[in-house]
Amino acid sequence: MTTRWLVTGAGGMLGRDMLAELAADPEARVTGLTRGELDIAEQGAVYAAVAGHHVVVNCAAWTDVDAAECAEEAATAVNGTGVRHLARACAGSGSLLLHVSTDYVFAGDAGHPYPEGAPTAPVNAYGRSKLAGERAVAELLPGTGYTVRTAWLYGAHGRNFVRTMLELACLRETLDVVADQHGQPTWSRALARQLAALGRAALTGRAPAGVYHGTAAGRTTWYGLAHETFRLSGLDPERIRPVGAAAFPRPAPRPAFGVLGHDGWSRAGVPSQLRWDDQLSTALGTSGFAELAAAARAVG
User: Fold this and answer.
1) 126 is catalytic
2) Which of 61, 256, 267, 272 has the fewest CB atoms within 10 Å of its CB?
């Protein structure tokens, strides 16, 4: 059966990987709308865009964590009100909604992975704005809304930590990287694959609505991620030096612990993601990263 998918935020890192993943499905008919083509904060435009689609994957978001700290209203207009528009439109059209959220809805003070049902307590404006979106999905789509929290996302398209490390490898002999924040680096292509599988499971009634955690297995620090990125790229990992987060003061506080549990996927019949280091090894061999690594090796 032909299924019509709508991907919002289609020009971003995850959105582009989502389009590529769905393009391989012969039964999927996909509409991808970039930020310039659809501002989800515009209610009328959202209603018109959602109509006629079976599944909506919301990859649109305000992602500048530090800027949100002094522009919380603007961030919430996208991450909260915009998601409410999508949820209301999906409720009216009978569409499923897969909404991408973040580990920043948690306080980051746990000592073990956060389960899907753990209490939320964001420590910054960005986290509060994303939590507003989660609540809109839960309220308006209790049976057809899916919130997928991810974290430490990197991919071939757009700015992200892994790309930045490889670019800086061409410019600096050593790099100081934070070693006291813990999380799960997640390849955007792996998340896109998981989102597509969740959408298909939801369409067939196999996946219960609710919250899922879309992050890689295992855990590391930013220092560990940078160290492994260098090692796998054929660069000297000893060029990476561990420092505390206090060495890089930022406008928005960051959760120190963003490790998520993945129990929800077994209920949906969808596999959990691979370990973060296995994902990274595969990602670094793909177009977009391999060229950066080669350039860094050529410099020194």
Assistant:
1) yes
2) 267
